[in-house]
Amino acid sequence: MVTDIMPLRRIDHLRFFVGNARQSAYFYRNAFGFDVVGYGGLETGLRNEAGYVLRQGDITFVLASPLREDHPGNARLAKHGDGVQDIAIEVDDVAGSYESALSRGAIGITPPSKLEDEFGIYKTASILAYGDTTHTFMNRDEYDGVFAPGYLPLDPERYGSRRFHPAYLTSIDHLVGNVEEGQMDKWVGFYERVMGFSQLAHFDDKDISTEYSALMSKVVQSGSGRIKFPINEPAEGLKRSQIEEYLEFYGGPGVQHIALATNDIIKTVTTLRDNDVSFLRVPQTYYDLLPQRIGYIEEDINCLAELGILVDRDEEGYLLQIFTKPVEDRPTVFFEIIQRHGSQSFGKGNFKALFEAIEREQYLRGTL
């Protein structure tokens, strides 16, 4: 019988550190359909930064920005631009999880603490992951506020009363991290040793390659299977891979993309396109060959082709997926929209078409 050395409930939220949290919240509200449900800043007692809490389905993003010159995050912004600073994981026992992680080699960032206000007690602690990305262990079983102490429900007047269109997103399917060449196995080992993850899949440079570039990837998952982290590293190729481009412009390892699940990808992508979200496209020949490669699917292939949605199948079923272009000026963070019909894989059959589409964008940027 396998023992889960660190029981983890789920990804509770992602904390993005950004240059202007108010404007970023407006973007994710109007482009991706998130509700802006909470605010922390000078009016709520936070003196050094402002933050907005966004929710859709079971997904929570926290967007935070510095308010003062001496905020330690200013150096992070100069190095990385906007990006994911912290992956927060809900646990039963914050102190126990933190001490357990440190006993197996994790580096502590913030020791266990209890934050308290009129809504209850919010427990938190954090450790270092790849680059300067962190994992926060948190628990709000005794907390009834909108998010955490220092945050209050958002005043509707701050964004106006116009009703926006939600994008039918339900949860975080997986998070992809990019690390330097030769470091993938180190971080796979970290998640296995420190947090009790196991390896779910392995893709080498033969699986993920084009004429010009290649990468390698391993996928680790938590003991419960609810949390999945693919870890990518560049592989040798004729030109610069997307991973190398990311590492250059992000200034080191970090979260490359966030896969968001939906139960109706056609409705979701239609909404996002109407909201001016930009997606990668593959050639029409991809769809001409799709029926013989995939077999029967419930969706209309002509509709998928019009929207640019990709399809892949494994022994458990099939999945549909599509990738946005980077959502920052730097070619770093982007999103995947995914719907699973039984398949628990990651679209191996789409790798070549997808990476050729990414390379076309790199060529336009002059970074291939």
Topology, pairings included?
Layout: E1 8-17, H1 21-32, E2 35-40, E3 49-56, E4 59-66, H2 73-80, E5 83-91, H3 94-103, E6 108-117, E7 120-128, E8 134-143, E9 152-153, E10 169-178, H4 184-195, E11 198-203, E12 214-221, E13 228-235, H5 242-250, E14 254-262, H6 265-274, H7 285-288, H8 290-294, H9 301-307, E15 310-314, E16 317-323, E17 334-341, H10 351-365
Parallel strand pairs: 1-4, 5-8, 10-13, 14-17
Antiparallel strand pairs: 1-5, 2-3, 2-9, 3-4, 6-7, 7-8, 10-14, 11-12, 12-13, 15-16, 16-17
**Overall 3D shape:** globular
Low-confidence runs (pLDDT<50, min 5 residues)? none
Instruction: Enter the CATH topology name of the largest domain.
Output: 2,3-Dihydroxybiphenyl 1,2-Dioxygenase, domain 1
Helix content: 25-40%
At the first level of CATH, the class of the largest domain is: Alpha Beta
Tally of DSSP helical segments: 10
Tell me what portion of residues adopts beta-strand conformation: 35-45%
**Helix-strand string:** EHEEEHEHEEEEEHEEEHEHHHHEEEH
Notable traits:
368 residues; eight-stranded mixed beta sheet; globular; 2,3-Dihydroxybiphenyl 1,2-Dioxygenase, domain 1; alpha+beta; nine-stranded mixed beta sheet; 2 domains
Write up this protein.
The protein is of the alpha+beta class. Helices cover 25% and strands 36% of the residues. The chain has helices at 21-32, 73-80, 94-103, 184-195, 242-250, 265-274, 285-288, 290-294, 301-307, 351-365; strands spanning 8-17, 35-40, 49-56, 59-66, 83-91, 108-117, 120-128, 134-143, 152-153, 169-178, 198-203, 214-221, 228-235, 254-262, 310-314, 317-323, 334-341. Strand 6 and strand 7 form a beta hairpin. The longest helix is centred in the C-terminal third of the chain and has 15 residues, at 351-365. The termini are far apart. The mean pLDDT is 91.
